[in-house]
Amino acid sequence: MRADIPAEPGTPAELVQLLTPEGERVHHPDYDLTLADDEYRSLFRDLVLVRRVDVEATALQRQGELGLWASLLGQEAAQVGSGRALQPDDFCFPTYREHGVAFTRGVDPLQLLALFRGVSNGGWDPHEHNFALYTIVIGNQCLHAVGYAMGVQRDQADTAVIAYFGDGASSQGDVNESFIWAAVFDAPVVFFCQNNQWAISEPLEKQTRIPLYRRAAGFGFPGVRVDGNDVLAVLAVTRAHLQRAREGGGPSLIEAFTYRMGAHTTSDDPTRYRLASDLEAWKLKDPVERLRSFLWRQQLADQAFFDGVDAEAEALAVRLRDGCRSLPDPTPEQIFDQVYAEPHPLVAQERAELTAYLASFEEGHR
Amino acid sequence: MSETVTLAKALTLGLRRALEDDPKVLVMGEDVGKLGGVFRVTDGLQKEFGESRVFDTPLAESGIVGTAVGLAMRGYRPVVEIQFDGFVFPAFDQIVSQVAKMHARSRGDVPMPVVIRIPYGGGIGAVEHHSESPEAYFAHTPGLRVVTPSTPADAYWMIQQAVRCADPVVFLEPKRRYWEKAPVDTGGSAPGPLFAGRVARPGRDVTLACYGPMVRTCLDAAAAAQQEGHDLEVLDLRSLSPLDLDLVTESVERTHRLVVVHEAPVFLGLGAEIAARVQECCFYALEAPVLRVGGYHAPYPPSRLEEHFLPDLDRVLDAVDRVLAH
Predict the structure, then answer these.
(1) Tell me, what CATH number does B56's domain have?
(2) Chain B interface, mutation test: which of A200, A204, A212, A349, most B Cβ atoms within 10 Å?
(3) CB within 8 Å of A79: residues ≥ 6 apart
(4) If you measure CA to CA, which chain A residue comes closest to B319?
(5) Residue A273 annotated in active site
(6) H or E element: which one contains B210?
(7) Cα-flanking dihedrals φ and ψ of residue A218, to 5°?
(8) Cβ pair B295, B231 in contact under 8 A
(9) Between the CA atoms of B83, B89, B93 and B98, what dihedral angle is there, to the nearest 10 degrees?
(10) For chain A: N or C, fewer Cβ within 10 A?
(11) Cα(B79)–Cα(A133) distance, rounded to whole angstroms?
């Protein structure tokens, strides 16, 4: 066995990279990417807007407008790159941190805020966006992704499925079972692991003794590690593996090597368990800044473009702040809505009891 | 030796003493080490007792409980932490199929002195899967014992008693009461047995049977009822399996009226069992039907609705009014 977890987190073995942290374009023999100028600019816009959603949501939580927020800070490229690799018919199964992927699937960020504000347990129609509801129980969604992919196989559709999960989830039984199922059934699914190095307070070595992408080999499908802070590399690698799945090549595992720059959620305090110096090292690999450098270097964008994106981000922020505060609270009776698809007498009875109980206050009986 | 501490801190002190008292006691789970648990219940324990006895596990609940089974077979007494109520279900198979049955199927050769700590219940404005009350599943499972403290003093003693118990104990911690403070006498030994309830407030007119997070709610309801001239007795059940039915029936013999209160859905909840037992044991003492106040037959709602889902003072008093109307 090769015991080769890289000594330095920043220099992992066999990392696919197309853009260095300094914004220099490099090439990889297996994964290349040619984009039109406006496509590069569009990716930059995505990264900036997604980061702004995150910043605003964090602020709204601090102001008491959200109960909780799970920040994606540092993972924008992993999410935008993989999300933009998807075709409209492809289907995504997210965790609860895929705000950037949600953005690429056309889910209004306000719908994400509804979940974290506590006005909804869902937020959007998965079939409208081909983007499943967030899954909070760690790893559950990976099996759903495989099942969906098995349906795609039966329909002989030209569709791929992507399952998002994290380094912590890689320990869960459900995730390992999903690998087995996908391999056995040759399901058209891409397992996309954002290895952000931390499961709340637990560093990666609490979950694994080999690089996560190498686990795929044991299950019988390919695994690849990509620089998760390099939006171009993530886009190229994810595109290639989704296409492989669509063409009947079966499952694969992509490990996007990145870093959770923020807390696990707004309830967490990472200063209790990790060093600020790690954070400083990763700041130099910032996904937004490296694409900005590239655009400048290659003269693909000018100041007017960057100003325009900033203005758009500001407008989005204003819309989110106002929109979040005016999200309507559900009515108490909505507790009983859609518990079942068909009528259920106990639910009907309890709903009637709650209505009568609430009415007793209105009528001044108390 | 008395100090005023939060319920969470009382658990920390109790766990620390359990670790001191028996070198076979282990504490394990997600984030229980350096972080001290997401609620800080294991704060400082790894530093004091080392990484061999207090340790972080991979993120896998079935793994946490399944390996605890093996550790128990090897003579250890694992105290495992499940981070939130809604995350216990990946471990449900190990708990129901293995932990609960091992002693019986080995005809006593393999005891399972495992404590499964679970913060439970709502009222903290959390997202999905962080506010559930799964006690009935466990109480329904033969082989498991289920207890829940409602005060810092009970938390301190009950966790130690649970660790010493030869049987597996599901130890439910009322997370919304973690930060409530009260004096705890940490000297001597436990003031009473683990599997018994207590009268939290004596009264004459109606018995309120409750546990965990609802004890505070029922005491508040009793204080409010006092203003209207009703004297309510509040029973803190403490143990859900076994259930201290003598405490309940003795109270009902005096008050003739019973309301059971829990956060869990009413349908097939603990209240159903208590109501059935009470009508069996003291049918002729009852002057009103036994009423239940609890959650609805609906998934735990988004947090903006939880105040309507959770029993509160008004809903308890509404039920009290109805039993008094008989």
Answers:
(1) 3.40.50.970
(2) A200
(3) A50, A72, A98, A99, A100, A101, A103, A104, A194
(4) A357
(5) yes
(6) strand B206-210
(7) -65, -25
(8) no
(9) 30
(10) N
(11) 34
DSSP H/E element including A161: strand A161-166
The interface pTM score, or ipTM, of the predicted complex is 0.91
Q: Which of B30, B54, B55, B59 to mutate to test the interface with A (most CBs of A within 10 A)?
A: B59
CB pairs under 8 A between A and B: 115
Residue range of the domain that includes B140? 2-185
Is residue A131 within 8 Å of residue A167, measured between CB atoms?
Answer: no
Tell me, yes or no, whether B128 lies in a domain. Answer: yes
Indicate if B108 and B223 belong to the same structural domain.
no
Q: How far apart are CA B262 and CA B255, in angstroms?
A: 20
Inside any domain, residue B193:
no
Tokens of B140: 């329904």
Burial (Cβ within 10 Å: 0-12, 13-18, ≥19) of residue B135: buried
CA distances (Å), origin B183, targets A176, B9, B154, B156: 47, 11, 11, 11
Q: For A119, which of B57, B59, B304 is closest by C-beta distance? A: B304
- Tell me, what's the pLDDT at A14? 86
Which residues are within 8 A (CB) of B172 and not within 5 positions of it... i.e. 6 or more apart? B118, B120, B135, B146, B147, B148, B212, B240
Q: How far is A79 from chain B (nearest CA, A)?
A: 22
CA–CA gap between residue B148 and residue A330 (Å, rounded) = 32
B179 and B251 within one domain: no
Minimal Cα distance from A346: which residue of B? Answer: B297
How near does any CA of chain A get to the CA of B138, in Å?
Answer: 20
Instruction: Give the nearest partner residue to B38 out of A115, A137, A200, using CB atoms.
Output: A200
CA distance B312 to B305: 13
Q: What are A86-108's pLDDT values in tens digits?
A: 999 999 999 999 999 999 999 99
* Tokens 């690429």 found at: A104
Integer-rounded Cα Rg, in Å, for chain B is: 19
Report CB contact under 8 Å: B299, A121.
yes
Which of B130, B230, B256, B262 is the catalytic position? B130
Question: Is the pLDDT score of B174 beyond 80?
Answer: yes
> Could you say which of A84, A99, A117, A260 is catalytic?
A260
Q: Which CATH class is domain A15-330?
A: alpha beta
Give the C-alpha separation, A180 to B231, whole Å: 61
Is the pLDDT at A192 greater than 90, yes or no? Answer: yes
Cβ contact A68–B90 (<8 Å)? no
What proportion of chain B, given as a percentage, has pLDDT over 70? 100
| Same domain, yes or no: B24 and B160 | yes
Catalytic-role residue among A52, A264, A290, A292:
A264
Q: Pinpoint the alpha helices (H) of B228-267.
A: 245-255
Cβ-contact B292, B266 below 8 angstroms: yes
Rg, C-alpha atoms of chain A: 22
Which residues of B fall within a CB distance of 8 Å from A94? none
Whether B166 and B251 map to the same domain: the answer is no
**pLDDT tens sequence across A298-311:** 999 999 999 999 99
Same domain (yes/no): B158, B206: no
> Which residues of A fall within a CB distance of 8 Å from B314?
366
Q: Does some domain include residue B8?
A: yes
**Closest Cα to residue B43, out of B30, B59, B32, B53?**
B32
**Is the sign of the CA dihedral B172, B178, B181, B184 positive or negative?**
positive
Contact B277, B252 (CB under 8 A): no
Question: How far apart, in whole angstroms, are the C-alpha atoms of residue A92 and residue B90?
Answer: 23
Residues B177 and B113 in one domain: yes
